[in-house]
Amino acid sequence: MTEPTGRRERKKAATRQKIADTALRLFLERGYDAVGIRDVATEADVAVTTVFSHFASKEALVFEQDEGFEQRLRQAVTGRAPHEPLIPALRREIRALVRHCAADGAAPVWRMVDETPALREYEESMMLRHAESLAAAIAGEPGPPRTTTACRTIARFVVDAFSLAREATDPEAAVDEIFRMIEAAWEAARPPERAPAPVPPGTAGAGRG
Predict the structure, then answer these.
(1) Which residues contact 116 (CB under 8 A, 6 or more apart)?
(2) What's the pLDDT at 67?
(3) CA–CA distance, 157 with 189 (Å, rounded to integer)
(4) How far apart are CA 143 and CA 130, in angstroms?
């Protein structure tokens, strides 16, 4: 009998979450560098191949919400309400993400990331990937087109806003401060309106009876 797809996907997601939770607990208890993939697999009671079927690397175990983060940024652009301006929609999403990362219990994880060169490098690469994905979503916006450079720049600013605000004393106030600058930059990137073509001398009123 074939297992229903919904149940199979739920089991797969539960296994992934169990592995990630186990890895994070071990990393915080013993130190990131002291724990190997085999340790995680043994503690989670799965095969090493199962760990790698869910996570491409040891670093990815720490950033298990990586894909969801990227999807949320794109959705803030493509799924916002009609006529809602782009930058306020992105600000709202970044505030929600920062609020989640500033929740109780998150500080030790970010401290581990900051203190581990491999994790910092992975995070930087991950954020660049998110920025490129967000830039593509922004470039598909209706209305006066911005240049590719403008879309990529704003996307980088938005992704960096998350990292900068996460480190601030007052994260939400930091988001608002950063986004005031982002909004100004986005407006500055608006293409200039074309002036009407000049009427050649002597043709004004031509054809009138």
Answers:
(1) 32, 33
(2) 84
(3) 13
(4) 23
